[in-house]
Design brief:
- This protein is α+β, with helices and mostly antiparallel strands.
- It folds into two domains: about 5-280, Butyryl-CoA Dehydrogenase, subunit A, domain 2; about 285-470, Butyryl-CoA Dehydrogenase, subunit A, domain 3 (Up-down Bundle).
- It has helices at about 5-15, 40-50, 55-60, 80-100, 105-115, 130-145, 245-250, 275-285, 285-315, 325-350, 360-385, 395-400, 405-410, 420-435, 435-445, 450-460, 465-475; strands at about 20, 25, 60-65, 70, 150, 175-180, 180-195, 200-205, 215-220, 225-230, 255-265, 270, 350, 360.
- It has a six-stranded mixed sheet, with no helix packed on it. The chain has a four-stranded mixed sheet with strand order 5-8-9-12.
- Helix 9 runs antiparallel to helix 10 (about 325-350).
- The longest helix is centred in the middle third of the chain and has 31 residues, at about 285-315.
Length: about 475
């Protein structure tokens, strides 16, 4: 099956009957009808529908190298700068459907799998490594348009530099058995966004300083025996798009993934029992370059949306004449155009890697990835500062359908629009900056690629400042003097 539509996606996930737990109870029935998942699954389905629309299909898909049928453009292994640009256009087309609010739209994990498949040379000839399994899984996911989540992180038990587990029962997932059928994994990983509403889960674990049984990578169906997803509290405020314009549509659940003696068949194992590979594969592969390219492209769309909200508030209550208001809006404009420039630079300075694939310039993307976690919290602050009390005086949809409608129309109108339109806008601003959904978005963007301090250290280590130090040395060095002097 090539590129799928929304109904196919939803039907497929419903049929899995994945073990998902919410508020202490298992989710029963169709997960697509559960209040915590209904909105986001519908929104995800719309992405799949969109990719098949005749007017955009050439941008959203490309002919499969195996079957010639249309497959998702986010699976494309780029070999030219034009390929990179085409991938970016596809990513931003999808992002526009949710204004960048879905950080785990399918193109993110499609990109991850593509990057893994583009770096299998790192595993060739290495002990306990199966590069052919990555290639086969990439082709399987691409040809069947599989939706995928992932988990890379251990539970946050003890974050000391040299913490070692000393428990009989594993906390962080590890291999507890190797047999003729595959490896058996027990323990937990976090933080699988969209856990339980995808076909597959990709698992990657670094051995770190511990035993080799903690380092592995594989992918298995989400309904694998012994696998369960434990959800946090849902941030869906309600089904009303008036009251909760974002959370009702785009709330991507985050889950703890528990492996209760889960058997991973050998043909699904990418590597195991090789600490060096498990500790270095992400950094050595094209994972960072390609995923950062996808994320920056999405974040640009999200920043455009936030600028739209801010300008709409300015217009709604007629505060555009104040210089401090203009200054705040300009902060977002500068951030937006900076992100665009960095993405363009990363594409124009892309280079072919050792395996023949066109990688965007990773250093440039690292700068963008360092910038956004610092500016996104400021976006929420700007919305709060400009919206002020307007973010608190936001009656519900039911209030506008009640006997107090006349009062609301009179006292809550905007400078140029009626009260209902003003409240819709301010509820949107509240949902992105103040609701549980909105504050989760801030935390999510702050830590998307890990601790911002660690990101800064990585950039500092990667950046070559020596040419500039040499210029300083040159100007401080004595100048040549003639013999007469």
């Amino acid at each position: 099956m090539p590129a799928i539509n929304g109904k196919q996606y939803i039907d497929r996930i419903d049929r899995l009957k994945t073990a998902v737990w919410m508020d202490g109870d298992p989710v029963t029935g169709k997960i697509s009808e559960h209040p915590a998942f209904k909105g986001v699954m519908k929104s995800q389905g719309q992405l799949y529908d969109f990719q098949l629309e005749a007017r955009v299909k050439p941008c959203m898909t490309y002919p499969s190298p195996l079957s010639g049928k249309p497959v998702g453009m986010s699976y494309l292994q780029p070999k030219t700068i034009e390929d990179l640009v085409n991938r970016r256009k596809m990513i931003q087309h999808w992002a526009l459907l949710n204004n960048g609010m879905m950080g785990r739209s399918p193109d993110y994990m499609n990109t991850v799998i593509m990057a893994f498949a583009s770096s299998v040379g790192l595993l060739t000839g290495k002990d306990h490594c199966f590069p052919e399994n990555i290639t086969k899984f990439y082709e399987y996911a691409r040809e069947n348009d599989r939706s995928i989540t992932h988990t890379f992180i251990d539970p946050q038990v003890n974050r000391a530099h040299y913490h070692f587990e000393h428990t009989e029962e594993p906390i962080a997932a590890r291999i507890v058995e190797r047999n003729a059928a595959g490896i058996v994994v027990k323990g937990a990983k976090v933080l699988a966004t969209q856990g339980g509403i995808t076909d597959e889960i990709l698992v990657l674990s670094a051995a770190g300083f511990e035993a080799k049984d903690k380092g592995f990578s594989f992918s298995i169906p989400s309904n694998a025996k012994g696998l369960k997803f434990i959800c946090r509290d849902s941030f869906v405020g309600g089904e009303s798009a008036f009251d909760h314009p974002l959370s009702s549509r785009f709330e991507e659940m985050d889950t703890i993934v528990v492996f209760d003696d889960v058997l991973v068949p050998w043909d699904r194992v990418f590597y195991f029992d090789n600490p060096e590979i498990s500790n270095t594969f992400l950094a050595s592969s094209s994972f960072s370059a390609f995923t950062m390219h996808q994320v920056v492209a999405r974040r640009i769309v999200k920043t455009e949306f936030i600028l739209g909200i801010v300008q709409s508030i300015i217009d709604m209550i007629n505060i555009g004449g104040y210089q401090h208001v203009q200054e705040k809006a300009t902060e977002i404009i500068v951030a937006l155009e900076t992100m665009k420039a960095l993405l363009f630079k990363a594409e124009m300075e892309a280079q072919v890697d050792e395996w023949g694939y066109m990688r965007p310039d990773q250093l440039t993307l690292q700068i963008a990835i360092n910038l956004f976690p610092k500016i996104y919290p400021r976006f929420s602050e700007i919305i709060q500062l400009l919206g002020a009390s307007g973010l608190m005086t936001i009656p519900t949809e039911n209030a506008f359908r009640s006997g107090i409608r006349k009062d609301l129309d009179q006292y809550l109108q905007g400078a140029s629009k009626k009260a209902e339109d003003r409240i819709k806008l301010f509820r949107l601003a509240w949902d992105i900056s103040m609701s549980s959904f909105g504050t989760r978005e801030t935390l999510y963007e702050r830590f998307f690629f890990g601790d911002p301090m660690r990101l800064s250290s990585q950039l500092y280590s990667a950046y070559d400042s020596q040419p500039y130090v040499d210029r300083v040395d040159a100007i401080l060095s004595p100048t040549d003097r003639s013999a007469d002097d």
